[in-house]
Design a protein that fits this description.
- The chain has 175 residues and is mostly helical.
- The chain is 63% helix and 2% strand.
- It contains seven helices and two strands.
- A two-stranded antiparallel ribbon has the order 1-2.
- Helix 3 packs across helix 5 and helix 5 packs across helix 6.
- The radius of gyration is 17 Å and the shape is globular.
- It starts with a helix and ends with a helix.
C-alpha cells in the first residue's frame, strides 16, 4: 500500500479525500479496487468465446478501475453532479467506490468498515445484497473474505507509513 501511494502521485490524497467525504476507509476502497481491476485503469471483463476460440462479446460493460457498470456509473454521476467523472481516472474511481460503499451502508445496513459485506453489496448490487443473492455463491464468499483480508493487510501497511505520506502531501502543498 505504501509503495503504491509513493509511486502513484496524488493517489493518497484522492483516497483520503474519498474516505473523508464518504466514510469508507482507504484500505477498504483500495482492496475493492484491487479485486476489481488490479489497479488497471482500462480493465474490462474478458470476452466470451464462440466455438471455444473465437472472441465473442463481453459479458457486461463494466470498465475501468472500479469495474462499474455503465448504469451504476451514470447513477453516481447524477447523484454527485460529477458528469465529467471517468471510470479510468483513479480520483473518480476511488470516489465512486466510497460513494457506493456509503450508499450500501445506508441501504443495506452494513457497517462502514465491514469490508466483507460491503464487497458482497458491491459485487451483487444493493438490491441483490438485500435479496441475499450471494447466499449460494461459495466462490463469491471466498472472494469477499479475500478482499476483507487484503483490506486488513492494507490497513496495517498504511499504519506504518501514513505519517510520512501525510508529511509528503503537506510538503507538496496538497493540504
Amino acid at each position: 500500500m505504501c509503495s503504491i501511494f509513493r509511486e502513484k502521485k496524488g493517489w493518497y490524497g484522492d483516497a483520503k479525500d474519498a474516505e473523508e467525504k464518504w466514510g469508507s476507509s482507504v484500505a477498504t476502497m483500495m482492496a475493492i479496487l484491487h479485486q476489481e481491476s488490479r489497479f488497471v485503469h482500462d480493465a474490462r471483463p474478458p470476452r466470451t468465446k464462440i466455438l471455444g476460440f473465437i472472441p465473442g462479446p463481453r459479458p457486461s460493460d463494466a470498465y475501468g478501475y472500479p469495474q462499474a457498470l455503465g448504469t451504476t456509473w451514470r447513477g453516481y454521476q447524477r447523484s454527485t453532479f460529477n458528469y465529467s467523472a471517468d471510470r479510468d481516472d483513479f480520483s473518480d474511481a476511488i470516489d465512486f467506490v466510497g460513494w457506493y460503499n456509503n450508499s450500501s451502508a445506508r441501504q443495506c445496513r452494513i457497517k462502514p468498515h465491514d469490508t466483507y459485506h460491503l464487497y458482497l453489496a458491491y459485487h451483487e448490487g444493493q438490491g441483490g445484497f438485500n435479496r441475499r443473492t450471494f447466499r449460494n455463491k461459495s466462490w463469491l464468499k471466498k472472494v469477499s473474505h479475500k478482499v476483507s483480508a487484503r483490506a486488513q493487510s492494507y490497513q496495517r501497511q498504511l499504519n506504518s507509513c501514513e505519517a510520512s505520506l501525510k508529511r509528503r502531501k503537506k510538503f507538496l502543498g496538497l493540504f
